[in-house]
Amino acid sequence: MPFFKPLLIVLAAGGAAFVLSGGRADAQGTTLHGTVGPAFNISLVDASGNAVTHLEKGTYTIMVDDKSEEHNFHLQGAGVDQFTPVETVGTFTWTVTFTDANYTFVCDAHPTLMKGAFAVGTATPPTTTTVSKPPLPPPGKLSAAVGPGASISLKKSSGASAKTLKAGKYTVSVRDLSKAQNFHLIGPGVNKSTGVRFTGRATWSVTLRQGTYRFQSDPSKARLHGSVRVS
């Protein structure tokens, strides 16, 4: 009776070698790519660029591109604990063996913002929780006026003079009723004004930071002026 040897085929694809024996494939030599930074992002993808969510158990090569001195890439789970230094940038290569378990990758400096997870083998894929950011508050409203005579003002939406305000975004509605004056708002990060010969309305979107803001008419700033404290 003739003797047949088991068939063993080695295929090379994309730099990874897969050994097939009797139709079974393992992960020996497969390369994954991790990236962290330069902004607040972290990822782990396969050779095709797809996000890693599930892997077959086996040995993998992990190539990490750490692009930030403020972040790092930390891979951990059953039998694996590999990380890049937080204050170092560069490319790192690890050889790791994954078993039937869940694994995580995080930035140790920002673990709640920069994280990911995946399952290996028969492990149940980890659940992901999406945290919704609370809606931003609407901008505050201010009304400004200059003229028609020797008058200038900046008021809150209640009609009260703006002496103190909270830092944040504001919409300023300006009424310029004088061809001889203008309304000029100056302070940290803000320098807005109407033209001296301009009359009419203008609307500005501004972000007020902590500090003192001054409003004035440039031709008569010695007598037409005011200020508001932002905290």
First-residue to last-residue Cα separation: 94 Å
Strand content: over 45%
Largest sheet: 5 strands, mixed
Helical run tally: 0
CATH topology of the largest domain: Immunoglobulin-like
Specify the helix fraction band: under 10%
Please tally the β strands and state the result: 21
Following the backbone from N to C, one meets helices and strands in this order, namely EEEEEEEEEEEEEEEEEEEEE
What CATH first level of the largest domain would be assigned? Mainly Beta
Short description:
With 231 residues, the protein is mostly beta strands. The protein is built from no helices and 21 strands.
Structure commentary:
By secondary structure, the protein is mostly beta strands. It folds into two domains: 113 residues, Immunoglobulin-like (Sandwich); 91 residues, Immunoglobulin-like (Sandwich), CATH 2.60.40.420. Helix content is 0%, strand content 50%. The strands form five sheets. It has a five-stranded mixed beta sheet with strand order 6-12-11-8-9, with no helix packed on it. The chain has a five-stranded mixed beta sheet with strand order 15-21-20-17-18, with no helix packed on it. A four-stranded mixed beta sheet has the order 5-4-7-10, with no helix packed on it. The radius of gyration is 31 Å and the shape is rod-shaped.
Comma- or semicolon-separated keywords:
Immunoglobulin-like, 21 strands, single chain, mainly beta, five-stranded mixed beta sheet, 231 residues
What's the layout of helices and strands?
Elements: E1 8-13, E2 16-21, E3 24-25, E4 30-36, E5 42-45, E6 54-55, E7 58-66, E8 74-77, E9 80-83, E10 90-98, E11 102-106, E12 115-120, E13 140-146, E14 152-156, E15 164-165, E16 168-176, E17 184-187, E18 190-193, E19 200-208, E20 211-216, E21 225-230
